[in-house]
Design goal:
CATH class of the largest domain: Alpha Beta
CATH architecture of the largest domain: Roll
Number of helices: 4
Distance between the termini: 33 Å
Order of helices and strands: HHHHEEEEEEEEEEEEEEE
Helix content: 10-25%
Number of strands: 15
Radius of gyration: 21 Å
Mean pLDDT: 87
Strand order of the largest sheet: 1-4-5-6
Largest sheet: 4 strands, antiparallel
CATH topology of the largest domain: Nuclear Transport Factor 2, Chain: A
Shape: globular
Structural class: alpha+beta
Length: 249
């Protein structure tokens, strides 16, 4: 049961991660205005067909559509928009992800993303960002498409890095990790987000290197690395006056 839950979470993270791919420029303002009006109208009416019409679903497979239906269309159908705007894509998002030998990517060249703040049906606040591109002169949300890569790539693992800093004032740190995805090395920055602790979860074949260094004047740090359910590296709390480095044999 836990394995099935993990698979569903992984699939959802792939889709949403692919939805946040990097782009070079935003579309013209008139196109954006028209698209934002379409979104407001579809969400305001709670019209499911109109909401689906906002997406480019070319070559999108049924499992991806089901996830979009549950986690995007269903949310927007009952949402009350409080703010909507278009914005550039973050520069550090990747153009594709590879999991278990399958490449996931957007089915349009991305021009930006629409950020929607809304009130949920239960009265709470919600936020969703969806990328868009140009489809034959009309802006549409992108779909995620899959491509089976050639060769026999090793299965992907859930790679989890947990860093805990203990100290007063709080411990700060920074570093990076390198892992394989589709047998290609990817580098991710690691930095505390203000709380002294960080957990990073990615999908890949293996973690090949990690280095993290304390940037605060004092305090201790621990690093734990797991691949699926197996702990492959664990330091316990260390003074961390020197960088903590993981390099598998």
């Amino acid at each position: 049961m836990l394995k099935n839950v993990s698979i569903r979470i992984t699939m959802l993270s792939i889709i949403f991660t692919t939805m946040f791919l990097s782009a070079t420029a935003l579309a013209g303002s008139s196109q954006e205005e028209i698209f934002l009006k379409e979104i407001r109208a579809a969400v305001g009416a709670g019209d499911e067909d109109a909401l689906w019409g906002l997406f480019n679903l070319d070559d999108v497979e049924e499992d991806i559509k089901k996830t979009l239906a549950k986690h995007v269309v269903k949310r927007l159908k009952t949402a009350k928009i409080t703010e909507i705007k278009s914005e550039p894509m973050p520069e550090d998002f990747r153009a594709s992800y590879v999991v278990d030998g399958i490449k996931y990517q957007a089915n349009l060249k991305l021009l930006g993303r629409v950020n929607i703040l809304y009130t949920r049906e239960d009265g709470g606040e919600g936020n969703i960002s969806i990328p868009y591109g140009d489809k034959a002169g009309t802006l549409r949300f992108t779909g995620t498409v899959k491509e089976k890569l050639p060769g026999n790539l090793p299965p992907s693992k859930q790679i989890q890095v947990m860093i805990i800093g203990i100290g007063n004032p709080r411990v700060t740190f920074k570093g990076y990790m390198i892992y394989l995805q589709g047998e290609q090395p990817l580098r991710d920055k690691i930095e505390d987000m203000g709380g002294g602790n960080v957990t990073r979860i990615v999908r890949g074949e293996a973690l090949t290197y990690l280095e993290v260094k304390r940037t605060s004047p004092k305090g201790t740090m621990s690093v734990t690395i797991m691949e699926d359910d197996k702990t492959v590296f664990e330091t316990g709390q260390l003074p961390a006056d020197e960088p903590i480095i993981y390099r598998p044999e």
